[in-house]
Amino acid sequence: MLKITRQVTLLLLAGALSFPAYSYATQATEVLVPEVTQEKVTGTVKDALGPVIGASVMVKGTTNGVITDLEGKFSLNDVKKGDIIVISYIGYVTQEIPYTGKPIQVKLAEDSKALEEVVVVGYATVKKANLTGAVSAVDGKVLEDRPIVNLGQGLQGAIPNLNVTTSGRPGQGSSFNIRGTTAMSGSSPLVLVDGVEMDPNLINPQDVKSVSVLKDAASASIYGARAAYGVVLITTKGGRKDQPTQVSFDASVSFNGPTTRPTYMNSMQYATWMNTAQQNTVGRDYFDAEWMQHIEAYYKDPVNNSPVFIHSDPSISKNGTKYTYAGNTNWMKELYKKNYPVQKYNVNISGGGKKATYYTSLGYTDQGLLIRFGNEQFKKFNVMNNINYDVNDWLHLSMKTSFNRTKLRGLNQDNVHGDNFMGGDTRPIMPVKHPDGNWAGQGDFTNFPAILEDGGSRLTNKNDLWNTITMKLTPIKGMSINMDYTFNYYSENNKVHMKSFDEYGANGQFLQTFAWTNPNSVSQSQANDTYNAFNFFGDYEKTLGRHYLKGMIGYNQESKHTTGFNAGREQLISNDLGSLSYATGDRWVGSSDNSWATRSGFFRINYGYDERYLLEVNGRYDLSSKFPKHDRAVFNPSFSAAWRLSNESWFKSWTNSFFDELKIRGSYGSLGNQALNNGWYAYLSNYSTGQISWIMGSNQPQYVVPGGLVSSSITWETVTQWDLGLDFNFLNSRLKGAFDYYQRRTSDILAAGKILPGVLGANEPQENAAESLTKGWEFEISWNDQLANGFHYTVGFNLSDYQSEVTKFDNESKELGNWYVGQKQGEIWGYETYGLFQSEQEIAGAANQDKVSGGIKLMPGDIRFVDRNNDGVIDWGDNTVDNPGDKKIIGNSTPRYHYGINLGADWKGFDLGIFFQGVGKRDLYLPGTSFRSHYGSEWQVPSAYNNDYWTEENTGAYFPRARFNGGSAINQAQTRYMVDASYCRLKSVSIGYTLPKVLTQKASIEKIRIYFTGENLFTISDTPDGLDPELDNPYTYPMQRSLSVGLSLTF
């Protein structure tokens, strides 16, 4: 119609401009524009039970559509012969019917796709309905069109009991945990990308097709000793057969900023607090009258006053060589940008013919600088190529190659603060720079902008190359033989160039070289890894009547060789020449060379009867070089079974076929764990060398330190787990869900052995001497439906919880501060408080608390502790569980009740996605820096949150009386400063619009989608301002809030 209208318009315009051409124009119109009849199509949509109400009926590629009425009938206008009519309804197979001019009668068939849906498991794919283990999966849609830099950010909260720890810091990836951490032992899962162990933070999230999480021992045991704490299986995208070449381009730019930042006291609040604290400590002001006059003047009128002055007291001004500071600097505003850009670009080309498929992708991410000073930047470049080729009916070849490169220009570090880019001693009265342009600080205070700007540079380059070649043979029906070989080369280069810079005082006088970057230096390190993996496995499946049998047997071997080299040198001859050759100080050099290898055989047997009773047996025999030769082997068995109640005839009759799927399953398995988190070889004692700091003769002597004691009996940790689960699916697949309860026991955990006599002069060796038990559950449910007007929506919810307890540990006295039997992971022992003292009479009538208050003279406004054992003294008794004095368990820092809420909708080209994520319960003791540390040191700056401190005018304050000797009391773990760190965060919101194909196809574009996305937009939490509940430290690099706009094109 648009083409016809355009032709008519042009001809009419020509006729208006040229009268003699009128007759010809009329004739041309009649000849060139054939009349196309727009018709009304009618019809009826039914299923096996009768009319289908609310089914969507649309003309393909347009927004022209209606829905069926109460009798399943529809009437659709503006349809021409040849148009494709698309009829769809949730839970049924979508049908496409060409319109021939006759009424359409359609009988929809129930969509069995939900039951036929396959899930990636170890060395295979399995129909979801036939799973006997605890497996959760999501597809790549949860990652699409989101401004995420790494995979973990997109998976957070998406899968129950897949706990993801993320960071907003450029270049720092995410870490995974499945079903909770285990007390005393590492609990990291095995992460495989297309069957190969790989760092998930290096891959491009846009290349991910699906993610499966194998949670229980039965699902994970096929991977053996590396999978004791579960497996994350990441499958990347590939081409499809008989698909024309398709080019997709996605570009987005987001503007990121911190979710929250600590707010500090302004100069007047700070000066008042300092004077009050000094008065309460030693009876005099911290800032004298002259100093306060300048602070107040600048605070009220910064335009006409200076942030620096020379104090008349020579002991303060150092005889006029140093400025005295009286500014009002908002350091958060000075350090952080409000937002910064992150750019992401992805291009992929895919397609396939009868025998071959291909998928090639390029990805580029450029993450800018949040901090105003320095030159921080993170760039990531990804290339992936995936080719599959069927040589003939029985031989299939594939090759996947990927290359990942990251470049991180990090924040500079000094010799004291490490990764911190903000310190507790950064006072608001200190300006960033003096009026003459020199950096403030003068050797008395840390000026972080100076360190970040002039302190040097840090650069980290990572290159990661992977190549996997696979061959699959299918010699007879039901049998496949698979072989694959993977080679990986990884290199990482780090360079730290620390520059020294000078500090200046009053009127530009040179004072000194900044101590914490002096002497200047350069250091470099290089790490190289080579990894080889080979798999050979075959399987055969056969159905005999009602019996289904499948068996698999295979072999796996892997090896890794890591080399490292580092060197450094101080005293550069020029600050700008960051080379070892241009330094005169002593060199330091180090190197490392490590390797490990595993050899494994594995098998799996599946049996099913009448699609009702399912049984699976797995086993794997592992050999690892990380243990002594006499104890390098472990066998990992597992068993699982399921009963599909929904396929029982009596159950169908009893429930009137209400359930599409109802399955009860259970599993049990035991796995060894070689990842003991104590180095490469736990059973070897390693020597170390060093250099004495003083000179003897003309040389600095070298020394050798013998290794510590080791146990000759070190063996595998053992992780045993059982699981009970329920899967359900009903209302034509609209409502789906699952519930699991599990217990995981970790035994033979490495821990300190029996205490040795002190005269031996050595620590007790690590032994397999501890045990812990983790109990937990998880639940997920989702609803998928379409309303009568064609509005499609989804709702999903997941919830999980776990607790870990120590069940064996050599601490017979149950001394606090060490593990003990019965201890719940994350327990916080502390004191109960009874508010703040309000009078001298209350102090006189209270128990003696010198031990916890540091022996200071108590005053109204100090913390009042509860004498729980009524012995008249506040103390910790024997500091044991049986005699903790006045201590008790006051909280637990383990996050409880992880949850995620997914909401989605689409209608006539518009789509909406909303995702909430949170933690239902967690206790966190108020961090020291910026909240408590200033009670024990005049060098620590209070946050604005600390303005609520006790005075005679503010007796209901949250914080105690200001003083510099109150650190002992406030730093005791106590109920008063226990923070509720539960939270609910709007993790992601996306709004998109896909243009109708009738418009895009004119430009030879298959699809155009415009989208807007927001991440971490708001958080509901009771934590103080500046303390993100996902982080424990306000000085940790903040989580990022982002707003992005993107464009997706498919040609």
The largest β sheet comes out as: 22 strands, antiparallel, barrel
Content-based structural category = mainly beta
Radius of gyration, taken over Cα atoms and rounded to an integer in Å: 35 Å
Low-confidence spans: 1-34
Strand portion, in percent? 35-45%
Count the DSSP helices.
Answer: 15
Q: How many DSSP E strands? A: 52
Mean pLDDT: 86
Shape verdict: globular
* Terminal residue distance: 23 Å
What helical percentage do the residues reach?
10-25%
Per-chain topology:
Layout: H1 2-17, H2 22-32, E1 39-47, E2 50-51, E3 56-59, E4 65-67, E5 73-79, E6 84-88, E7 95-98, E8 104-107, H3 113-116, E9 118-121, E10 124-127, E11 135-139, H4 151-155, E12 162-165, E13 175-178, E14 190-193, E15 196-197, E16 208-214, H5 217-220, E17 231-236, E18 243-258, H6 267-282, H7 289-300, E19 308-309, H8 314-317, E20 324-325, H9 331-335, E21 340-352, E22 356-367, E23 377-390, E24 395-410, H10 448-454, E25 456-473, E26 479-498, E27 502-504, E28 510-513, E29 521-544, E30 547-570, E31 587-609, E32 613-624, E33 633-644, H11 649-655, E34 659-673, E35 688-691, E36 702-705, E37 717-730, E38 735-752, E39 766-786, E40 792-808, E41 827-831, E42 833-836, H12 840-844, H13 850-853, E43 863-865, E44 887-892, E45 896-907, E46 910-921, E47 923-925, H14 967-970, E48 978-980, E49 983-994, H15 997-1000, E50 1007-1015, E51 1019-1021, E52 1040-1050
Parallel strand pairs: 1-8, 14-17
Antiparallel strand pairs: 1-2, 1-5, 3-4, 3-6, 6-7, 9-10, 11-16, 12-13, 14-15, 16-17, 18-21, 18-52, 19-20, 21-22, 22-23, 23-24, 24-25, 25-26, 26-29, 27-28, 29-30, 30-31, 31-32, 32-33, 33-34, 34-37, 35-36, 37-38, 38-39, 39-40, 40-45, 41-44, 42-43, 45-46, 46-49, 47-48, 49-50, 49-51, 50-52
Helix pairs in contact: 1-2
